């Protein structure tokens, strides 16, 4: 559930234990994809966090 995930990223519930604590928010969703399995979704998320994935985001999502 993307809405709940964004809420968790933006909430102070977990305080400094949150992974996104050091990155300033609030976070907002700018792109999403749907996968049939959690495994496929996690592979794609890992791709976006690597160099090639970040380049793809800049070229396809964050176009000037």
Structure commentary:
- With 64 residues, the chain is an all-alpha fold.
- It is 47% helix and 0% strand.
- It is globular, with a radius of gyration of 13 Å.
- The termini are far apart.
- The mean pLDDT is 83.
Keywords:
globular; mainly alpha; single chain
Give the helices and strands as they follow along the chain. HHH
* Count of helical regions: 3
> What's the count of strands?
0
The amount of beta strand, in percent, is under 5%
Considering DSSP H and I runs of 4 or more, what fraction of the residues is helical? Answer: 40-55%
Q: What global shape is seen?
A: globular
Short description:
With 64 residues, the chain is mostly helical. It starts with a helix and ends with a helix.
Question: Topology of this structure?
Answer:
Layout: H1 2-10, H2 38-48, H3 51-60
């Amino acid at each position: 559930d993307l809405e709940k995930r964004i809420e968790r990223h933006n909430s102070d519930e977990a305080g400094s234990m949150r992974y996104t604590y050091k990155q300033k928010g609030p976070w907002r969703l700018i792109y999403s994809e749907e996968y049939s399995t959690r495994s496929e979704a996690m592979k794609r998320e890992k791709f976006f966090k690597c160099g090639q994935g970040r380049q793809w985001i800049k070229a396809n999502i964050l176009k000037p």
